Amino acid sequence: MTTQQLIQQIQQKKSFLCIGLDVDLTKIPQHLLELEDPIFEFNKAIIDATHDLCVSYKPNTAFYEAYGIKGLQSLQKTIDYINQNHPEIFTIADAKRGDIGNTSTMYAKAFLEDLNFDSVTVAPYMGKDSVEPFLAFKNKHTILLALTSNEGAFDFQTKVSEGKELYKTVIETSKSWKNSENLMYVVGATKADYFTEIRKIVPDSFLLVPGVGAQGGSLQEVCKLGMNKNVGLLINSSRGIIYASNGIDFAQKAREEALKLKLEMALILKSIN
Amino acid sequence: MTTQQLIQQIQQKKSFLCIGLDVDLTKIPQHLLELEDPIFEFNKAIIDATHDLCVSYKPNTAFYEAYGIKGLQSLQKTIDYINQNHPEIFTIADAKRGDIGNTSTMYAKAFLEDLNFDSVTVAPYMGKDSVEPFLAFKNKHTILLALTSNEGAFDFQTKVSEGKELYKTVIETSKSWKNSENLMYVVGATKADYFTEIRKIVPDSFLLVPGVGAQGGSLQEVCKLGMNKNVGLLINSSRGIIYASNGIDFAQKAREEALKLKLEMALILKSIN
């Protein structure tokens, strides 16, 4: 998918919502556990109920790897289901990978070619030659961890070197990498003030924003400081939507939660136009 | 496996060699491709030929994920084969994972419980709460990326903040995390001088050292500066051993390469006792 196609989808749906498909078998409705592939059935129901409200789905690979080969089959079925039924949706493999060059190429192929995700999240610690292999894929996107939404973000990401926090150095440095036009960045919503600084460095890039809702970030605040002329934001919500209910009405309740966020987003978009 | 058991194995075998099982189907002997599971058959032959010369095997998960569900099955069979036939071997899942707390727990379970590796490599960028979930597993080990052996290591890992390079801050900070006694560190051999500094911070920890051989690091130099009273080093070699030949003699040639390194290690161990 091109960035332009993502932007068009946002404009058409009046939404920049990304739904995190982090399926934990201990949290999903009990009646699904009797089915052959509860993870896929859960995802399918969530997707059927929400695809018109969101522009992106983001399965976190940890939740699938935790169930071994069966989990990987569920992931494969989930991405295939999205690609076949909702090809307009921007898909994100939240894998946070990163390794030396030829090894990163292996990961990139696995997620961007074989599983056919539109994008993958990547950790920056190993630098340029660990990220560039991901950037080489045309019309695919690499979402680099910049400032994450967890407590530990302050352990290293905000360390100041040469007058600059590490996350800013990561973003600035990444702009010089080959095919850097394929980069997006993870920026946690829990630190809305940082968006002002980040937009000075990457005014045009898309930012994937976790931490709205369950982790306490404010949608209004993030949009005020982080939005650009193409919106430029993908706001992720996982637990707040997919675990809104664990009864047989789970998909309907997920839709209601997604709809609340989507309507809030539509209002924000209206107010800036 | 306890650290003490690893140390005993090193003393008994007079080796601190780790063999990287990074299986690329385009590089293995052609005749294996006719078998049902070429990756496992390749690994099995390498393990059979080298298990008395090394103390550790390290499959890099990227090489298995690249082959989808079949690849994951090969990884499962490989770790099971090692655990069943050579339980004394210290196994490393080179996965370089790291995510927010509950998600890291998912990864930790996948590698340390379900696949039953002795250890897993983890990226530090997301800080304390992304690593501690891995440290919670008893007699399991978390190998934190500190200073990697690739070119990109100099992009961020050596940035100086408060008078200290990032990789040193990572190592120092990690010492305060819960169950930090379960930590080891990745330190590339290509920068032997750095070992002196690192040993001031973690005199007793084990260091996993890639980059000897193919990537140009010197074994002698690393041992001189990085060894401690328990040896404290696991020297990894992947391509130099497993791809020594791509003919039908590949396992024998791999043994010969492993033996060269093992004999060099035995000499070094003799010289310090």
Automatic annotation (TrEMBL), chains A, B:
Keywords: Decarboxylase, Lyase, Pyrimidine biosynthesis
Natural source organism: Flavobacterium macrobrachii
Its EC number(s): 4.1.1.23
Domain of life: Bacteria
Pathways per UniProt: Pyrimidine metabolism; UMP biosynthesis via de novo pathway; UMP from orotate: step 2/2
List of catalytic residues: 96
Catalytic activity: orotidine 5'-phosphate + H(+) = UMP + CO2
GO molecular-function terms, A-Z: orotidine-5'-phosphate decarboxylase activity
SUPFAM superfamilies documented for this protein: Ribulose-phoshate binding barrel
All residue ranges annotated as the Orotidine 5'-phosphate decarboxylase domain in the record: 16-254
PANTHER family membership: OROTIDINE 5'-PHOSPHATE DECARBOXYLASE
Protein name: Orotidine 5'-phosphate decarboxylase
Pfam families, per database record: OMPdecase
Family from the record: Belongs to the OMP decarboxylase family. Type 2 subfamily.
InterPro entries the record matches: Aldolase_TIM, OMPdecase_type-2, OMPdeCOase_dom, RibuloseP-bd_barrel
